[in-house]
Design brief:
Number of strands: 0
Number of helices: 6
Order of helices and strands: HHHHHH
Helix content: 55-70%
Radius of gyration: 15 Å
Shape: elongated
């Protein structure tokens, strides 16, 4: 699993400007159409394909709550 950042105009701007560098994750998350992916997206793909278990995926994602919501677990636990 890997985070992938492609050299695009948007990523260049975020990389060069220290005030915008914190927005790099969003650029990666929204850049799948050019081959970018975050580590959470890579983990989600592995979970969806069955390569890793949901429990293992949950241990490694950066945003566990969002991962659960995306997987529909949060709604099930709330009911």
């Amino acid at each position: 699993m890997a985070e992938l950042l492609v050299n695009t105009e948007a990523s260049q701007k975020k990389f060069i400007d220290p005030e915008l560098t914190g927005e790099m994750y969003e650029v990666m998350a929204e850049g799948a159409f050019v081959g970018m992916q975050t580590s959470d997206q890579a983990i989600t793909k592995k979970d969806d394909s069955g390569e890793i278990s949901f429990a293992d995926a949950l241990m490694y994602v950066a945003a566990p709550r969002e991962f659960k919501i995306a997987a529909g677990v949060a709604q099930a636990a709330a009911s």
